[in-house]
Specification:
By secondary structure, the protein is an alpha/beta fold. It is built from 4 helices and 7 strands. The mean pLDDT is 91.
Length: 157
């Protein structure tokens, strides 16, 4: 997962607003969702591991996290039933953003992710415009690539 300073800088780049609906992906025990829930109107947190999702729900309930809904599912699939989203946060390294996730962003919606290429990656902020996502590089960081976010590998000569 992400180092706390990296997460803080990513969330700052998202420029979250009080009326935002945010999709938080690969949330682990829910720390990022708790932070986002203090700023945004509502958060949909997606975690693949059921035990971590249950722990996140319990922690968020103890913190009064009524603005956060925790879903067990594949982060790369998102949670289209709750969208479209104003902002999206990815909690780990990615090599590619699945089209299914990009499609869950509203026009003008923001997404932040750590694109990994080798041992180091680049955090990028994307904004959905005219049906596509336009990216801007922010800073370098590192994290393991999340399952479901790796590029398709093919053999080439």
């Amino acid at each position: 997962l992400l180092e706390p300073r990296t997460l803080a800088k990513m969330l700052d780049a998202l420029d979250l607003r009080p009326d935002d609906l945010v999709l938080d992906l690969a949330v682990g025990t829910g720390y990022s969702s708790a932070v986002i829930g203090r700023v945004a109107q509502a958060v949909v947190a997606v975690e693949a591991e059921g035990s971590l999702a249950a722990e996140a729900e319990a922690v968020l309930a103890d913190l009064g996290g009524g603005r956060v809904v925790v879903e067990v599912g594949a982060p790369e699939a998102g949670a289209p039933q709750h969208g479209p989203y104003d902002a999206m946060n990815l909690q780990g390294g990615i090599e590619t953003l699945p089209e299914a996730l990009g499609a869950q962003l509203k026009e003008g919606g923001r997404v932040v992710g750590l694109f990994v290429d080798g041992p180091l990656g680049t955090v990028r902020l994307g904004v959905r415009r005219s049906g596509g996502i336009h990216w801007r590089d922010l800073f370098n960081a590192g994290a393991p690539v999340l399952p479901g976010f790796a590029r398709e590998r093919s053999f080439a000569l």
